[in-house]
Amino acid sequence: MRHRRIARALKKKQMPRTDYLLIIATVLPLASFVLLVFAGKRMGKPFAGYVATGAIGLSLVFSVLALIGWVQGGEYKPAGRTAAISYGMGRTPINLPMHWVPSNYTADAQTKFLNVGVYVDSLTIVMFAMITLVAFLVHFFSLAYMADDKRFPRFFTYLGLFCFSMLGLVLGGTILQLFIFWELVGLCSYLLIGFWYEKKTATNAAIKAFVTNRVGDFGFLIGLGILFYHFGNVSLPDIWSALDISKMSGRGIELANGVWFGPTLLTVMGVGLFFGAVGKSAQFPLHVWLPDAMEGPTPVSALIHAATMVAAGVYLVGRIFPILTPDARLFIAIIGLTTLTMAALIAVAQSDIKKVLAFSTLSQLGYMILAMGVGSWIGGLFHLITHAFFKALLFLGSGSVIHAAHHEQEMHQYGGLWRKIPVTAITFAIAVLAIAGTPGLSAYYSKDMILAHAGGYAGLGAEHSKWYLLFFWVPSGIALVTAFYMMRCWMLTFWGKPRNQHLYDHARETPVLYGPLIVLSIFSIIGGYVGVRTMIEYAMGEGSKIVLDVRGVKEDSPEAKKYDLYATAWPGEPGGSHLPTEARAAVAEGENEPNLTHSQMEFKHYEHIVHTVVVWAFAVGIALGFVIYFKGYAVANALMKIAPLRWIHTWLYRRMYFDELYAAVFVAITMGLARLSALFDRVVVDGLVNFAAHFVKKTSDLAGLNDKYIVDGAVNGLASATQSLGSAVRAPQSGRIRMYVTVLLAAVVIGIAAMIVVVISK
Amino acid sequence: MDFLKHWLLTILIFLPAAGALVVLFMKTRDGVRWMTLGTTLLTFVLSMLLFVTYKWDKGSGYAYEQDGGVVQMVQHAKWIPAFNIEYRVGIDGLSLPLVILSTFICVLACIASWNIEKMTKGYMALFLFLETGIMGVFLSLDFFLFYVFFEISLLPMYFLIGIWGGPRKEYAAIKFFLYTLVGSIGLLIVLIGLYLYSRQIIPAPTPGAAAGTFDMVRMATPEFQAGLARVMPGGLTGTTAKTFFMLLMVGFLIKVPAVPFHTWLPDAHVEAPTPMSMILAAILLKMGGYGIFRIAYPFFPEAAKEMWLVIGIIGVVSIIYGALCAMAQTDFKKLVAYSSVSHMGFVTLGAAMMTPAAVNGALFMMIAHGITSAAMFFVVGVVYERAHHREIGRFGGLATTMPVYTGLSTVAFFANLGLPGLCGFVGEVLVLLGAFDAAKSDSILMRSGASWNSIVTLAVISCFGVILTAGYMLWTMQRVFLGPEKPEYRGFAEVDRREQVVLVPLTVMAILLGVLPTVFFFAYTDATVKGMFGLFKLFT
Fold first, then answer.
1. Which site from A262, A502, B163, B385 is most exposed, i.e. has the minimal number of CB atoms within 10 Å?
2. Is the pLDDT of residue B186 over 80?
3. A211:B471 CB<8 A
4. What global pTM score does this model have?
5. pLDDT computed for residue A742 by the predictor
6. Which of B261, B324, B426 would best serve as a mutation to test chain A binding (most A beta carbons within 10 A)?
7. Which run of H or E residues covers position B90?
8. How far apart are CA B1 and CA B338, in angstroms?
9. Do B325 and A681 count as a contact with CB atoms less than 8 A apart?
10. How far apart are CA A641 and CA A289, in angstroms?
11. ipTM, 2 decimals?
12. DSSP H or E segment with residue B185
């Protein structure tokens, strides 16, 4: 009865505006952060945790309400407009810019501003729901996991700041705001990786994370700079709408503001912005920080370094997708491909359970980045969401294992744990099956989609060069490796005989720990169905609608077609194109069309191969993992006896020696330069200064001009100043300083008095 | 109200000196302290009245209020009529934030000076006298008066370092004094040279009266510039103009300080007592930046456009080289000093690029750096007072020993390394974006024939600074605050009430400026900066 009344009330009275709901959802964790900063210690354990968990729980409620409201739709009237805009799923996004800092002056001396603001489309809504859900579960999990930690309140304080930053990032309507929150989530990552700051490894990992991200930000800033100087603005709809393919000629594009943008510079801009994503999403070559980041508490790994923050890079690429040139996208695809391959191979050889998961995260992020590169916008973001659920599940599962195993993380010490912690074992198995691509589970759909689009891209590119086929066959092969290493991880942890009897005997699990696992495993199963994909699909169309709105073009006019965000960027310039126009359209669509061109046929062909490939990759990978690790390390150890395999294993186990390489090259060069600069500064620059002073003094001595009361000419002045001041400074010893001060002040006071008299007598 | 509008600036300048006079006749040490605090507080409160009397939304163009410009609350009187030297003070968006910053930092520095036991009376009197010099520099509009204040603000600082400083105080004090004096010679030459030219431009109004002017606002007007173009050999872009511009720039860049004129700074900072380091970094360095934007650029905008590459390179080298030097330091205070060199490089770069974003960023950077450097030096001072050394390598684990102190320091550190949401970021990102903006085909530099490649190269290299800054800042934090608690520091007291009173306002300001830069800063400066760009001929 009551339910029905609520439903009726909801129907009659429209939901509050979606953007308000989302702003509240964003601010709540900030409020919790501020409260805990001042009162966290006094609240203590576990009350501080309840505050933070409650805040994010409320955020979750508001996000869900926003979701409902978004599906319902509504109207709003932004300032300075007469007609109302109808927002909601499939309609126009909400875009509320706000002046932040002045950036330029117009020709008639008006101030232009760089904006921050709110931008809400279906993607925002989906991200909010995912982030708040995962964050809430992680908070809940942490209540038990961190219960023994002496800095329990501080942990939840940081979590609050993180949730605020992450939600702010997703809510941002301008690239500047993305960058602002981008850095803030980086700060939270730094604080939480180094949470146990007594450990040198933890603080080193924290610094590494922050500085490596800053290297990415270096590129981001350059991209932002180029973007700013061409577009004069950094808000998303304005950037999108500035591009107009009808204004494009062979060698570049004329923007809506009349600025000419050459293709090379556009590519540099895209690659620069993407470099920020390379840092944050830990792509090759900046991937080195993520495995080390596992020094942080495990819930943090689940929330920040698996589900949300590291996916921000993919999200960023998704937001700038329409302004990426084909060359930039090719670069993105190559980086994604490299990362997913490298990381999956390294994951096979890791022995620390969290390291396996970390490299698995890298590899999956590689898939998403690859998806963006090959033009599979939906596929990449869809995988982002499904990945968030199963990877959070895996990490929380590993947390449950580690908790049960008294903070032992080496899989050598595990074995047979399923008998002691069955719920964890089962939920972990669901996640393993999901990531491996079991038909019917969430990741099957998203990975399938990425591979289909990659296949289309590869097939069409192959007309250009056969190398393009790698974009399909490598990720398909790695899908097999993925299934294998995840199965290996599960087998070594839960299957077989215990390898450490003491650890095994004391292992147990609690409902607070496995409750979130159950919720997440449900989402890992159904994540592919619940309309996530549909909503993401809508988002790009909504973006196109706001572009039409900004440019004042009617939606059904023929002109409108130019502003389709999938098609806006670059149908290929002579000599620079890597993908024919029609292919991009096909890749973007990915759906049946009645009249298929030759290229689209190619694409459909790959879509059929994909289903077969994905299923086989899954089956073979799982089976291999099961067979090889059926008896613990027995088979693996036998294989290690073969020398080349052992070498490869060592190479992979040491993560291909990237850390050593970077330490030897970049860190050493920077430190060397720093020492050299300091030495140069002390010896040469300062040496010159001292020499000059010495020289002047000696010259004046020689000339006999050491009378300190004569000041004529710069050189003499200098010398005498040296002398008189020297004696003045020696004065304290002789007790004359008081007199000096008095004389000085008297002189000034007389001067001031004289001035005042003059002023008054005016 | 009318009285205030007329006299407020003069009162702001001379109130501290009057306070100093009273302090000299005080009997007890505590009396001296409270009197000084009272004076600085009163000055601060009075400076807050500027928010009421200064009309930030009135006027446009770099001219006096009565001519429809932004320079307000002008008070003037004849001083040396023979040369048309005047007592002339006034305020606009350029000086207003710096005045507020100065009075604010002076209050905090006074509180930070509470534990000075050696010759308290002399110290406090000199300190107040210094504040008068500072206010004079930021408020005077007569070039000669500016020069006088610029010079006399040196003296108290010289004594404050030379008497109350560390082990090498004599060396540091003399170096500071002479270095700046050398820069002032250039200033003096331009002062006299410009006056001589101005006599050819502005004839005596009545027979017998003096010709020429020292009025800084007038010297920037298009009429005066047209006159200069006529009388100066080679016109506005000739060798004379360029030499004058560079002489001014060297004088101010020494003060900023920019590489290669920076070596006085680390020595002065290391030897200066903590409160004076705060003043030095937060305010005295800003005199250089202020001079660049008040004098060098408005007086010689055309020469500045020609010389942009030199200034730009100095800025970028300061950013990178300063950061590298900071990374290699083992002395905590020296590290902060070099980080000042690096951050003030953004001010120089912002000036060189001459785009609205870059100049706005540079101006903001001055305030932001004023807040963060004061906080940083105080942070160093707090730990020095307890440990009696500043070796970064010997610290560690202070996060456990002094959690509140660590929390406040963390904000200062992150504000300094340019974390968004804190004040350092806004200036940095605006200067960087503005640097790229200068590559636009209709930017001031591109129109005057600058090379696109040079602009973009400088912009890209300066972006590199963000990595280095993060590197040395975080590394320092790790060595000082993180790690296991060290037994020798276990007994350290947490920051006391007095220290919190200094640190908390700085922290709050760092956050407020970082989150709402327009509300707290740009609203007041916008009209003036726009006026300056009128002088640079952006709107033609």
1. A502
2. yes
3. yes
4. 0.90
5. 53
6. B324
7. strand B85-91
8. 45
9. yes
10. 32
11. 0.92
12. helix B169-201
